Amino acid sequence: MAGLRAPPLPGRHLARALVVGGGRILTEEWRSAALNRWLTARPRPTGFSLQPRDFRPADAEAGRAILAGAFVHDGVTLVVGVRGDPWDRPSPTKAFAEALHRFDWLPDLIAAGPEGAAEALRLVLDWRRVFGTWNAFSWAPEVMARRVFNLACAGPLLAARASEAETAKIAGDLARQARDLLGPGSVATAAERAACAAVAGVSLRGPAGKRLLDRALGKLGRALDLTVGAEGGHASRRPDLALELLFDLQTLDEAMVQRGLAAPDAVQRAIDRLAATVRFFTLADGALAAFHGGAARSASYVAAARAQDETGDRPAANDLGGYQRLEARTLEIVADAAPPPRGAWSEHACDQPLAMQVLVGGRRLIDAGAGRGIASACTVEVGELPDARVLRGFPARVLGARLAAPAAAVNAQRHEAPGAVWLDLAHHGWMAKHGLVHQRRLYLDTQAGELRGEDRLTPTARAQGPDGRHFVPYALRFPLHPGVQALVSQDRRSVLLRPISGHEGWILRNDALDIALEPLAGGRGLQLVLRGQRRADSGARVRWKLAPARQQIDGPKAQA
User: How far apart are CA 458 and CA 463, in angstroms?
Assistant: First the structure.
């Protein structure tokens, strides 16, 4: 059981923001100073010694689109024309600008062949001309870390087409940026920054590369102790960040082997633990479970990391990093059975206790949630809390949009018997406001292939009092994966669900007072909502069951 935390002190986030903001101003003043630029530029590297291998799959089609004059990121396009300049015009979005300055396009462009490598060299040199001195946005540590990694992995290929003077400039820029990465920064990105700097160090020739590598490895070992749990899992509790860090460490390990060096024990341990984490979160469709703002990634992307896992297809654990897995023939469930991350790790985290993700027949049916708040999560909401409790205003601008409220205690017990496995979960997040404990039981009948659930709101002494007879609304939500079709029965006791591209329907039966299909926030699909009312001094219970429909669905009878 996670311990209860003391209530936050008034103004503590503001006080922290003032301290951090003041320190950040001083740090940026120093980073932009001529003396710091002179110090980080020395010693100068003598070129590249080897080409680290990025195990992430590259997209040659995206590279050919750049050759045709169009940069594409996350569905957004910036048209610059053939041999155009993306650095002299505004980007469509901030996320697009970050991807551009991270050099996310570099692996794809190089994958397009010799013509792509030549264009990549031109774009890198043009970036250097405009932003190579220092810039608060493009030299932000989180942006620069990815640029350093991508440039280190592409450096020898670029050098093969560059003049000696251009190669010296590219290698010198890489060393300077990598050294800058090892300065002060957020604990949440420390492991990534140190790993990227180490990859740069191992790629550079001469004493400059060796000194950079040694310094980066020292910082990396300490950062990994804070980032990767002893049993596995990333401190952010995001499966996709565990995957990305695994990719970076795999690249570093392989590059050090090329140099005849052995990666430190801390790196090897982290690789083993992160590989187990990725294995745990890889679901039947080959993609990752998605929690706390993380992305599922594509099956091919996940497979590229798992191909380096020496343990192969060894069965995943049943619990890892505060998550629980339940599996039957056609059902797969991952439940969040721990509090959300706090502090710097919670900038993208979700306040969605006991949320779960469900796959049927290898297809995604129910997602853990949309957005960051409990009002769009696969769990129970009491009363009305339309938004996640995150930092706002000045503290958010300095510290990021962290979760502001203290984490509630969470209990989790796992039970197994022949033909069944079940979880007894509980969280105390409604204690302060409503005097309630949310208890959730998930019972998987592995023989029948059915998932039975029971959600209880149990009152405590705090629920008693003069206002104990007023009614409080509650809602149990099931956010449907995009493309899932749903049809509510006439008696409003069941819902027919069909996953995208699936022919087999599933029935979710329940005993709630009211049931409805409602749009998710942002219009990203539908959510099934079971509603009820409870007296403040009494409990409530909703029972539900997810089971295969008796007949297959022959046509699109439902609305998506």
Answer: 9
CATH code, 327-548: 2.70.98.70
pLDDT, tens digit (0-9, with 9 covering 90-100), for 480-524: 999 899 999 988 899 999 998 777 899 999 999 899 999 987 667
Residues facing 459 on adjacent strands: 436
Sequence-ordered alpha helix ranges (H) in 292-375: 299-306
Which residues are within 8 A (CB) of 550 and not within 5 positions of it... i.e. 6 or more apart?
Answer: none
Beta 540-548 vs 450-459: how paired, if at all?
Answer: antiparallel
Contacts of 29 (CB under 8 A, 6+ apart): none
Which two structure tokens, joined as six digits, stand for 390?
């995150």
HSE value, Cβ hemisphere, 13 Å, CA-based, for 18: 4
Angle at 518 between CA 516 and CA 519, to 5 degrees: 170
436-445 and 450-459 as β-strands: parallel, antiparallel, unpaired? Answer: antiparallel
How many whole angstroms from its chain centre is CA 353? 17
The counts of H helices and E strands in the chain are 15, 19
Q: Report the candidate in 537, 553, 470, 538 with the shortest Cα–Cα distance to residue 504.
A: 553
Which helix (H) or strand (E) segment is 431 a member of?
helix 431-434
555 pLDDT higher than 50: no
CB contact set of 436 (below 8 Å; sequence gap of 6+): 382, 430, 457, 458, 459, 460, 463, 539
Q: Residue 79: in which H helix or E strand, if any? A: strand 76-79
Distance linking the first and last C-alpha atoms of the chain: 39
- Residue 557 pLDDT > 50: no
Lowest-pLDDT range of 90-94, 382-386, 416-420, 453-457:
382-386
| Residue 377: HSE in the Cβ half-sphere, 13 Å Cα cutoff | 27
Is-contact 196 180, C-beta < 8 A? no
Q: Enumerate the domain spans of the chain.
A: 24-318, 327-548
DSSP lists the bridge partners of residue 76 as 73
Helix (H) or strand (E) holding 373: none
| Cα 169 from Cα 208, distance rounded (Å) | 14
96-118 b/e (C-beta count within 10 Å ≥ 16 → b) = bbbbbbbbbbbbbbbbbeeebbe
8 Å CB contact between 291 and 336: yes
Residue whose entry in the numeric block shows the structure tokens 């804070």: 226
Tokens of 48: 């590249």
- Coil, helix or strand for 86? helix
The CATH T-level fold of domain 24-318 is: Glycosyltransferase (1.50.10)
Query: 39-98 pLDDT, tens per residue?
Result: 888 899 989 999 999 999 999 999 999 999 999 999 999 999 999 999 999 999 999 999
Single-letter residue type at 396? A
3-state secondary structure of 204: strand
Residues 6 or more apart in contact with residue 239 via CB below 8 angstroms: 277, 278, 281, 288, 289, 290, 291, 294
pTM beyond 0.70, yes or no = yes
